[in-house]
Amino acid sequence: MDLLAASRAFVAVARHGSFTVGAAALRIPQSVASRRVSALEEHLGGTLLDRSSRAVTLTPFGAGLLPAAQRLIRLADTLEHDAERARRRPFRLAVPAICPPAALARLVAAARAHDLHLDLSTGSRADGADGAAVIAVPPDVGVWVVPLGLASVAGPVAHVDSLRPAKADAGSTGRRLWIQPEDDVPHVRDRVIRTGAATGLRPAQIVLAGSLVEAAAEALAGADLLLCSAAQAADLGLPWAPAADLEVARGYDVTAGPRAELTLLRTVLRVPVGHCLGAGR
User: Fold this and answer.
1) Rounded Cα gap, residues 269 and 7, in angstroms
2) Residue-wise burial string across 194-203, b where 16 or more C-beta atoms lie within 10 A, e elsewhere
């Protein structure tokens, strides 16, 4: 016997003084309500309701047990409510600043389909034990890998050495290559600087920007280049090409937080997370 379902039937019939109305309130057939009350009476060892007249009334035994049945229902309802709140508790996830709002919105929607309610923030550190962060890692150990290339309003550039100033331009800095803050990490920044030095670029031609906006503005305003992903270049309306002599990529993983949520982000939600980072778009 389902003690909770039987108690609900008992309380509903007692409240409305009718099996028909009580069953309707519970949205179950009258016959089901009758069977549940009878099963509860047999289980408890006494008659709960007097069915001898048109209106159903409580017996002394039923009147004594009605408050307990009501408490049982309230406790069950509280348990279900608390369980729903626990399922909907926000899971804090710090994401890189490069993630576009539209992709983040699709990630949040996809996560909800798996009962994961994301509370997104921009940054690189998780907030507490119930949060996580998408962090930059070397691409060879990353769950998500985003190849980088060169974007320029003047057209695609396939080789870094094409930025090397001609001897006749000794007094000119030449075209610059802008590195945005997202790529100010050793596995990207250091490789770009080494490649630039090896191909004859002047130190001033490689610039660490203070923000993506600054770097993108310089690329949009003239002949300078922006080191970025294909997705970023598309969002900015800049022609893009991978640099044949500069094989660099962003790598990402998600760290901290409960293992179940991390696994979900790395597997089921891998594609929408990747779209936020610029992978697979």
Assistant:
1) 42
2) ebbeeeebee
- Per the CB < 8 A criterion, the answer to whether 195 and 247 are in contact is no
User: CATH 3.40.190.290 region(s) of the chain?
Assistant: 141-250
Each residue of 154-173: pLDDT tens digit? Answer: 888 888 888 887 765 555 66
Identify the CATH assignment for 3-87 out of 3.40.50.720, 1.10.260.40, 1.10.10.10, 3.20.20.70: 1.10.10.10
16 Cβ neighbours under 8 A, 6+ residues apart? 22, 25
Using CB atoms within 10 Å of the CB of residue 93, give its burial: 0 to 12 exposed, 13 to 18 middle, 19+ buried: buried
Q: Annotate 146-212 with DSSP letters as a single string.
A: EEEEEE-TT-----GGGGPPPGGGTT---S-EEE-GGG-SHHHHHHHHHHHHHTT--GGGEEE-SSH
Extract the residue ranges of the chain whose pLDDT is less than 50: 125-129
For the chain, give every residue range classified as CATH 1.10.10.10: 3-87
**Is the whole-model pTM more than 0.85?**
no
How confident is the model at residue 55, as a pLDDT?
85
**% of residues, the chain, pLDDT over 70:** 93
Q: What fold characterizes domain 141-250?
A: D-Maltodextrin-Binding Protein; domain 2 (3.40.190)
User: Tell me, what's the pLDDT at 152?
Assistant: 92
